[in-house]
Target: Adenosylhomocysteinase
Amino acid sequence: MPYDVKDIDLAPSGERSIDWAMRHMPVLANVRERFSDEKLFEGITVGTSLHIESTTAVFLLTLQEGGAELAVTGSNPLSTVDKVAAALADKGINVYAWRGENEEEYYRNIEKTLDHEPDFLIDDGADLISYAHSEKGDILSKIRGGSEETTTGVKRLRAMHKKNALEIPIIAVNDTPAKRLFDNRFGTGESTVNAVMSITNSMIAGKNVIVVGFGPVGQGIAMRTDGLGADVTVIETDPIRALEAAMQGFRVTNMDEASKYGDIFITATGNYKVIGKEHFEKMKDGAILCNSGHFNVEVDLEGLEEISTESREILEDIKEYKLEDGRKLHVLAEGRLVNLAGEKSLGHPAEIMDMSFALQALSLEHMVKNDLPVKVHEVPAEIDRKVAQLKLEAMNIEIEELTKEQMEYEESWKLGT
Model:
């Protein structure tokens, strides 16, 4: 099978990593068992652009068990785990990815994935889908649909649809409650904090942590850093989210003010240059900057280079920038999503990705069985509830059921005071 990975001899180590993740993903195991029996995806090629690590591998093997032919590439130049990519290639999956790709290699691997002329696309960040539209228009008529994993990608795809550029139906897996509540809040919150601590060997307790953005991802980061004893400040442009942060007890201010006292800055906005040159000039010596959004545009790295007299990689995944007055600022993982791009970053816990990838798998099944119109679709509510129910069962949690009388009451409009 065609593949292009860093070292195929890493496959045995990667397989052990995949086996460990598989032990902690019972919801996907339930789905995989049914897919294996039904072989719903036989004759179907699925192209994916995802962070290639152990939990992603469990998901891809689930689709393969259902009969799918797979063409796989990474969704970030630094997030591919080479031993996992090797293990997938060794299992007959077409993999084109390695850690440390340059921009040209990254898009060439996307091109190779699309050369397999997939029937469906599964994306994280929308690079695969947007590239198919802009560079591979000849295969668009064959693509029946796609799904998107993350907030940034959904924003891009909604913008495409708004401008009449989207030509295939998309399911926004990111927008379902089970994904936003658990993956974005609990998964990103925990994995981001874990990555910052692992890369820097720094404590969170007692630090001034500045969380830029208070969407589901920012909420999770603020919650976890607060729980570790940090003094948390939230930066927001949305008045409702800012008020919510204030009501939860977080300090809320603007970036100009927070720049003066922050020890650790974590961006989670999905937007452009939310920390810029005017902010770097106010930061204290030794401040740490990192990003938990999809693209490395939230911290203005070009602006930081411009005002720096020198820069160096002081430790693995820590780049130090020296300013004219001698202050030093530190950027983690090249400003890319810190919970996956760092060499020591492990991504979300398997228990969290169990739910997200089960949503992806069942959304793909929904697209295979239904001819959807071209637009960005929500995940059907029954899929969301099914995944939540399977997760509860895996956790041995029983919930209450409505009685017949209660269901009749909910449907009645006549009963009043």
